[in-house]
Amino acid sequence: WEKALELLDDMPRQGLEPDVVTLNAVIEALDAASQAETAMVLMNKARSQGFYPKAWASDIKVDLHDCSAAVARTIMRCLLQDLRSGVRLSSRSITVVTGRGNNSDGGKAVLPSEIREFLVECEGPAFTDVLKNPGRFVLSEESLRSWVDSFGELAK
User: How many CB atoms lie within 10 A of CB 41?
Assistant: First the structure.
C-alpha cells in the first residue's frame, strides 16, 4: 500500500494523471492493508475531483454498481462519515444500489452481501432490503436519524 501511494503521488511529476483504474488499485491496496482512514482521504479527494460520479450522483441514492468490494466499502465509510459529521443530512432515506451481481465473475453476486455485512460489522445504520430487488437496500430516514443521534448520546 505504501508503494501504491508513492506511485500515485509521483504520477503528476511523470506527466501522468490518475484515472479511476489507478484509484481503484490504490484503494484496494489500502483496504487489503486495513488502511481505511487513508483510503477515505483518497476517496474524498477523488470525489472532489469528479471521480465515481455514479456513487455520489444524488443525496438519496448511492450507486455502487461498478465498484469492487474494497471501493464500495470505502464509499460507504465516506457516506457514514458524512452523515455523522452533518456534511450529508439524514433527513431523507438513502437507497444503496449494489446490483444483483449479473456481471460478477462466475455470476456470484459479491457486493450485496459484502456491503450489508459491512454495515452490520461497523454498527452502521439499520437497512431494509428491497424485496423485489436484491441488488438494493434502503437506509431509512428514521434509521439514519437514530444512528446519527446515537453518537450524540455516546458523547453525553
Answer: 14
Give the Cα separation of 90 and 59 in Å (integer): 9
Could you tell me the sign of the dihedral formed by the alpha carbons of 87, 93, 99, 100, in that order? positive
The CA distance from 122 to 57, in Å, is 24
The pTM of the full predicted model, rounded to 2 decimals, is 0.90
Among residues 25, 126, 95, 107, the alpha carbon closest in space to that of 67 is found at 25
d(CA 123, CA 119): 6
Per-residue pLDDT of 68-87, as tens digits, reads 999 999 999 999 999 988 88
What's the CA gap between 52 and 70, in Å, rounded? Answer: 14
Q: Distance between CA 55 and CA 63 in Å, rounded?
A: 4
Q: What is the pLDDT of residues 21-63, one digit of tens each?
A: 999 999 999 999 999 999 999 999 999 999 999 998 888 999 9
Using CB atoms within 10 Å of the CB of residue 62, give its burial: 0 to 12 exposed, 13 to 18 middle, 19+ buried.
Answer: buried
